[in-house]
Amino acid sequence: MLKTVKKLLRPGYRKLRAITQELTGATVSFPIARHDHELIRLGTDYGGWVFADDRRLFKSVIVSCGLGEDASFDVEFAARYGADVIIVDPTPRAIQHYRAITSRIGAPRSEAYSSTGAQPVAAYDLSSVAATQLRLCDKALWNENTRLRFYAPNNPDFVSHSLLNYQNDYSAETPHIVVEAITIEKLLALHGIERPELIKLDIEGAEVEVLADMLGKGIRPNQVLVEYDELSVRSARSETRIRTTHQLLLDSGYALVNREGNNFTYVGGEVVTGGREH
């Protein structure tokens, strides 16, 4: 029954998926902290994210892991804040999508966004985005610099691969490709960045290992946006992994200020508000 519901909803919206998870008991409750941050949302219903509006985001560098075929958040963020976005994704279709986007740099939107997770590149408004603002790292973010299996989704229409293969009970036997993996420490060093203002992690389960590595090394972005993909496949193992990571973020000084389905927004320290840069 659940598979039928998911199929009917696909590609759907994250809000609809969250409702499905609530109805099936597949959602774990995490309290939202009281806060005074001004939250905004950029991107499509499928690929958008909520975060705290902060003056330090202007002309900043952020890390966005997990491109797929919906770069709406990355493009809109780069345009709004004049920021550089380091996009991390080794998925072949994501790389193709990135190349199609960069071939249109400077062009205005000529199509509406799709309601699916696959956006036509003509739907992106790239008129105020420079080529240098969108940089691709075609590696998988992980807690080691190594080579790993990158497991294909069960449905060939889907784009997102997974290092963990949580969709198949963490099996090592399903179809995969082999990709280069890189740590956040090495990624930042390659780009000459001490600390990004914001990091977004939509990396199909690998966020648990990546966040433990990042925080263990003292790397503290002001904001952490993370999709806990394993909440979609409820098990004692997945819930333990997510709860441990959530507590690690809280212990590291972050507060959970928003949740949208499996997408969590954490803010650490003070957010600088007031006034706008253009």
Q: Outline of this structure?
A:
The protein is of the alpha/beta class.
Key attributes of the depicted protein:
single chain, 278 residues, alpha/beta, Rossmann fold, 7-stranded mixed beta sheet, 3-stranded mixed beta sheet, 7 helices, globular, disordered N terminus
Architecture overview:
The protein has a single domain (43-267), classed as Rossmann fold (3-Layer(aba) Sandwich), CATH 3.40.50.150. It is built from seven helices and twelve strands. A hairpin with a 2-residue loop joins strand 11 and strand 12. The protein is 26% helix and 21% strand. With 278 residues, the protein is α/β, with parallel strands linked by helices.
Secondary structure elements and their pairing?
Elements: H1 2-9, H2 14-23, E1 39-42, E2 49-52, E3 61-65, H3 72-81, E4 84-88, H4 92-102, E5 134-137, E6 140-141, E7 146-151, E8 176-182, H5 184-190, E9 198-201, H6 207-216, E10 223-227, H7 236-251, E11 254-260, E12 263-268
Helix pairs in contact: 6-7
